Amino acid sequence: MKKVAISIILVGVLGFGGFGVYKNINAKAAAQSQTSQYTTSKASVQNIKKSISGSGSVQSSSTDVLKAASRDTIDSVLVSKNQVVTKGQELITFVNGSDPIVAPYDGVVSDISVSAGDNVNASQALITTFDNKNLYTKISVDETDLPDLKVGQKADIKVNAFPDVKFTGTVKDISQQGTYSNGVSNFDVTITFDNVNDIKVGMSTEATIVTASKDNALAVPVEAVRDIKGEKYVMIPKENASPTLQKVELGISNGRVVEITNGLVAGQAVELPQIKSSSNNSSKLKGMGNFQMMQGGGTRNNKTSGSQGSSQSK
């Protein structure tokens, strides 16, 4: 009988202790739970530009090292380093009648390797020139951007030395071979300047290539769109009721807003999901990510955000 009593007491103690542990675990889990919170935005008419950007530097389309045709002696060097020259201008002459070295194009002398009186051999480098009229910049783009790029596309170029001057360019070449690093492949894109003004070789640049554009497009922030089994939806808030799913069709996107080609009208409100993480009485709002389906659970709180309706397109 005593053994039975002891067993009953032991079971009771273990049961009470287990309940306490269970309660404690639940309390900790509750303290670390995530509560979904929502703001709203309105579908609005915007001009959307989809673009690809990158940084680089100004480079010359032609750089030439001019060499001696035969063994001879330098008679005179007629130019100096950094001098601007014109096509056909004599640069170096020789004592023994060799043809003079002339500028192959309008450009700049960047280096001189000889002086008057020097003896030179055939194929010896004498002077270096570069074309300062036909300039380009080269940017590196992610492999995922390649399908949107084409030779002939226009680009806006910012030359950092002239922050208030707008330069334009044209995509001349897209590399057929990429460079692989840290799990990503990048490809070089060459953009020629339409006008050079006072640009100098070596100046730093930032180029933006517009790959698609749409004026007067109905758009919403990209985070408003959910992907459910390959179909695109937005959540439509309802006053004093649960929101409803609305199927939509999409057009172009610039990464901040996306065009809605069917399913919404201008001024219609949509929900923008976020996750509110709370732990030890502290909270932090986290974005749900673009074009992802809202993960369930949590308490729904609707808040209207006035800034969400502003245009984010370029």
Care to describe what's here?
The protein is rod-shaped. By secondary structure, it is mainly beta. β14 and β15 (184-193) form a beta hairpin. It has 3 domains: 34-48 and 215-309, conserved putative lor/sdh protein from methanococcus maripaludis s2 fold (Beta Barrel); 52-59 and 134-213, Efflux pump adaptor protein, beta barrel domain (Elongation Factor Tu (Ef-tu), domain 3), CATH 2.40.30.170; 62-130, Beta Barrel (OB fold (Dihydrolipoamide Acetyltransferase, E2P)). It has a 6-stranded antiparallel beta barrel with strand order 2-11-15-13-12-16. Strands 23-22-1-24 form a 4-stranded mixed beta sheet, with no helix packed on it. It contains 1 helix and 24 strands. Residues 277-314 are annotated as: Disordered. Residues 277-294, 305-314 have a biased composition (Low complexity).
Briefly say what this structure is.
With 314 residues, this protein is mostly beta strands. Helices cover 10% and strands 52% of the residues.
